Amino acid sequence: MAKNDTILIDGILDDRVLASMPSNRRDEVFEYFAFEQILRDYDLSQDEIVSGWVDGRDDGGIDGFFILVNGHLLNDVDSFVWPKSGCELEVWIVCCKHHETFRQAPMDNLVASLNELFDFALVPGEFKGAYSDDLIKARNRLLHAYRKVSSHLTKFSVRLAYVSRGDSCKVGESIRARATQAESIVKGLFGNCDSMFAFVGASELISIHRKVKTFSLELPFLDSLSRGERYVLLCRLSDFYRFAIDENAKLRRYLFDSNVRAFMGLNRVNEDIRDTLSNSESPDFWWLNNGITILANSAIVIGKAIKLDGVQIVNGLQTTESISQYFSAGGADSNERAVLVKVIVSTDSAIRDAIIRATNNQTAVELASLHATDKIQRDIEEVLLREGFLYERRTKYYSGQGYSNAQIIAPLYLAAGYVSLVLKLPSNAASLKSKFMRLADSYAKVFSPSTPLQVWPVIAGALKKTDAALETVRPVGTMANEKFLKNWRQITSLIAVARVCGTFSFSVGDLIKCDLLSINEKLILETWEFIKATLGTDFTYKKKVGRDGILALAQKAAAAYSLKGVEMVEQARFMECVSRELSPEFIAKVNATLPEQPWRPGVHGVVAKILGCRKSDVYEATNILVKNKQRHVQKDGIVYGDDGNVIAVDPTRHRVEHGGQG
Q: What is the largest CA-CA distance in the chain?
């Protein structure tokens, strides 16, 4: 049976290798596939999976290191929304081998690494083993998380897994003994930790892979009101909980693909929801809560239930997660309280976007959270589609459908290309993270409606051609392909495009006129060899080149290829341009000049003219005022108070009805 399952696994891998999902190397494709299946219940994006991929030299026998807080992947400790109470910390340590058996050596390496990496009394300098930077960073994230949530940690679990194409029923006794030892090490280092080891073979991988995401669901209700294909339902909390979880009692996170924000942790609003659920004497739940909004492709009412197809929960993620956590922890509801559920049937993308934007105003939303529905994002999606690219303005929209990575363009990927090729800042582009979009000015600087749409396919094409060429020269065992490409695609593509244009000072108009056929594999590989030769002994595949190194490369490329305009490269740092140090006096002047909220469109430009300064400085000062609670968060004419509730609305722009909890 396992032998046939191995044949099935190999067939899946064959297809993924051809589609470069995520690369064209079979061992890497297997590792990614293994991570994807093991972590399936968390519905992670490709970028999230890659962020926990630590395979390579000095990996200590660990290929995947994933940390999850309340079911959400911890990647960046600075930008993560930490829960204030009721925290569950989960760690997955995964060893992957493209073997047809389970072997002793990987287990020996793993046990030795666990003894050191999970002993927080040790600092890296005291380790006997050699560990990569990626592994040390993952360990540091775990240490940070453990300290951060220790005072309100309700559950801590460490899951250890050895994945191969073998038969998990034929694991040797000595190997199983090592697994037991690994569990004991973890339990010995963490007193109150649930530790479990699993051998995952071909049969298990096939079984998980065959699990189908169910978007056609039935929701029982107590009462309903309808008008056309729009329904307002009162549903028992317990019925909605069963609707939102799968057969393994895990929340169907894929139902939230269209939601514009992740679970905010136990903030004030979510603590109120939790307290309401826990208090059996509280008023009926729907009296206090705004409820859930569901988009569906079709809906049919059958008796006291509604059959929904194409389910997407577009508002009420906070409520849904809170309900799920309550019942998953053993909570009961003897009073059979109800939650309000709105169901809207529509397949029109513009209408769906409008509903998503309009309904997400109950918990304070970061300024960048609604960008997926911006007109500029939809415009970019359309212009890229005409050129054969799939713009994934919503996470996993296309990758979840099995499209090749060569076709898919993520917003951050495209933004980095703009920063490198248009702003001429490849060092900033290589380290660009999604948090740059939180600053209104940085987002507007990249995704400006004034930028000609024709430039985006050129940027996408140049980056994808660079990726394809560099992938052919990436040495075996260096790192996951995306990490390698992130280090090198920006400077390589910038020099390659400059060679085609004859100058580093090429404009957006020059890019639009650029012949993409000229940016071919031969040109890119020649550029790559030039970079390696120029760096000489300073070259390393893993370590990205900093700003000074980029400047030196650009200057030598200018001399080697007779390129003008090298002074444009790295002229200013992107993040410094949008987040400069502002004096308290200037911030006070901006505060005094700004009118009462809600502000009308263009207010920052008006203030900039009055004060004789840059509009970007006014934006930054406003962000500081909001952070210091001297002003309120405002988005599209809607003003939010510190508790996340709407406190003011511009009547000329919106007519908003608002409830209580979100």
A: 79
* 156 vs 201: CA distance, rounded Å: 26
Q: What whole-number distance in Å separates Cα of residue 407 and Cα of residue 60?
A: 34
> Strand locations in 140-179, DSSP E?
153-163
Q: In what order do the strands lie in the sheet with 298-302?
A: 217-220, 305-309, 298-302
More confident call, 145 vs 19: 145
Is the pLDDT confidence value at 372 over 70? no
**464-473 mean pLDDT:** 92
How many Cα atoms sit within 13 Å of 507 on the Cβ side?
4
Q: For residues 45 and 52, is the Cβ–Cβ distance under 8 A?
A: no
Under DSSP, the state recorded for 453 is T
- 8 Å CB contact between 269 and 644: yes
Count of Cβ atoms closer than 10 Å to residue 386 Cβ: 9
Q: At what angle do helices 202-209 and 2-18 cross, to 10 degrees?
A: 60
Report strand pairing: 305-309 vs 217-220.
antiparallel
User: Residue 321: CA atoms inside 13 Å, Cβ hemisphere, count?
Assistant: 28
Q: What is the pTM of this model?
A: 0.69
Determine what percent of the chain is predicted with pLDDT higher than 90.
47
Contacts 24+ apart (CB under 8 A), 358-361: 358/656, 359/293, 359/314, 359/315, 360/259, 360/260, 360/261, 360/314, 360/315, 361/635, 361/638, 361/640, 361/646, 361/656, 361/658
Q: Which helix (H) or strand (E) covers residue 245, if one does?
A: none
- Pull the structure tokens for residue 469: 């060429």
The percentage of residues in the chain with a pLDDT greater than 70, rounded to a whole number, is 86
Of the ranges 241-250, 360-369, 550-559, which one carries the lowest mean pLDDT score?
360-369
